[in-house]
Q: What sequence folds into this?
């Protein structure tokens, strides 16, 4: 592993396009292959920790150039309708999430213009902007700029399960989205442990939504 720590061992660039059916059934998730953890893409209008930007082409030598192929960590890009793109730089708690509303980061070097407005959640937007600026300056994700929540992974799974059921998915379909078809095929018929786990996740998701509602992401944003 290189001096970049945990992110130095990851591939420098990866483009992941979700299957249309999965994208419709589970609106918050991009479920990737079984060999890598799923990455959740939240819309910027729901999560204030998603930085909205506009991208304009620049020369590769420009000091303000943002280039996917020069990032020290893996970057996953997902395309949405209307020409929007979302980027996750890094993984897990140490990640930066960006929504591109104009232009494309896939076409080459770009200069990013940042959309920050008002005072509500401005502190969250500035924090994410600081994380991105530090990545550009130091060529790594600085651990001191990211604060973790030990329950975040379970919360994310619970919210994805809740979102799946809200969109009509069965418990088995939710399990496949969360754990992969191979594991579900093996575990679903050998006992009820996985079923019970899905039920617990659904209950946790219900409690999270009931307790926080639309403010959930604002209260737990990094």
A:
């Amino acid at each position: 592993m290189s001096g970049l720590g945990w992110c130095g061992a990851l591939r420098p660039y990866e483009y992941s396009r979700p299957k249309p059916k999965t994208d419709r059934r589970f609106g918050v998730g991009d479920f990737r292959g079984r060999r890598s953890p799923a990455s959740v893409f939240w819309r910027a209008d729901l999560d204030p920790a998603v930085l909205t930007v506009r991208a304009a082409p620049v020369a590769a030598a420009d000091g303000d150039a943002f280039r996917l192929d020069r990032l020290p960590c893996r970057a996953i890009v997902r395309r949405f309708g209307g020409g929007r793109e979302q980027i996750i730089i890094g993984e897990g708690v140490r990640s930066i999430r960006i929504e591109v509303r104009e232009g494309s980061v896939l076409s080459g070097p770009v200069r990013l213009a940042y959309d920050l407005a008002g005072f509500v959640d401005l502190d969250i937007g500035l924090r994410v902007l600081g994380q991105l600026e530090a990545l550009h300056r130091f060529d790594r994700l600085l651990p001191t700029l990211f604060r973790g929540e030990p329950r975040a992974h379970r919360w994310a799974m619970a919210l994805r399960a809740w979102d799946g059921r809200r969109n009509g998915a069965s418990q088995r379909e939710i399990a496949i989205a969360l754990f992969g078809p191979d594991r579900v095929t093996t575990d679903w018929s050998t006992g009820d442990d996985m079923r019970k786990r899905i039920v617990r996740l659904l209950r946790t998701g219900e409690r999270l939504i009931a307790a926080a509602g639309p403010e959930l992401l604002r209260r737990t944003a990094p």
About this structure: Residues 94 and 143 are 7 Å apart (CA to CA). The beta strands are 14-15, 29-30, 39-40, 50-57, 75-79, 85-91, 94-102, 110-114. The helical segments are 20-25, 122-138, 152-166, 171-179, 181-187, 193-212, 216-220.
